[in-house]
Amino acid sequence: MKPVAKAMKDSYIIQAKNQYKVPPLNDLLSIYIRLYFKDKRVRDVDNWHKISLDSLTGIVWNDDSQIRLATIDMVNCYDKDSPRIEIIIEKI
């Protein structure tokens, strides 16, 4: 993993641990990911969610193979002051 990607993943892991305080889920899951960027540059959808999902493994769920439905939203998701990733998780 490239140093920049590793630093990003490490940051995501710290943020996940700070926000998610219960044991990892064992259920099959549906997730909705909304990506907010600080600018309107064109980005590939597959470059952003993989690291997010990997970072949550062992914290929010036991294995990302539990995810059976994933929706990734990058439509008009710009927030110069607060770029972020929002994830909604539902048991199915």
Task: Characterise the protein shown here.
This protein has helices spanning 3-19, 46-56; strands spanning 29-36, 67-73, 84-91. The model has no long low-confidence stretch (mean pLDDT 89). With 92 residues, it is of the alpha+beta class. The protein is 30% helix and 25% strand. Strand 1, helix 2 and strand 2 (67-73) form a beta-alpha-beta unit. The chain starts with a helix and ends with a strand. The protein is built from two helices and three strands; from the N terminus they run αβαββ. The protein has a single domain, classed as 60s Ribosomal Protein L30, Chain: A, CATH 3.30.1330.70. It is globular and about 35 Å long. The protein has a three-stranded mixed β-sheet, covered by helices on one side.
Summarize the model shown.
The chain has helices at about 5-20, 45-55; strands at about 30-35, 65-75, 85-90.
Residue fraction in strands: 25-35%
How many domains make up the coordinates?
1
Question: Can you identify the CATH superfamily?
Answer: Holliday junction resolvase RusA
Q: Report the biggest beta sheet as strand number plus sense, adding barrel if it closes.
A: 3 strands, mixed
What do we call the CATH topology? 60s Ribosomal Protein L30, Chain: A
Number of strands: 3
Give the C-level CATH assignment: Alpha Beta
Mean of residue pLDDT? 89
Q: What helical percentage do the residues reach?
A: 25-40%
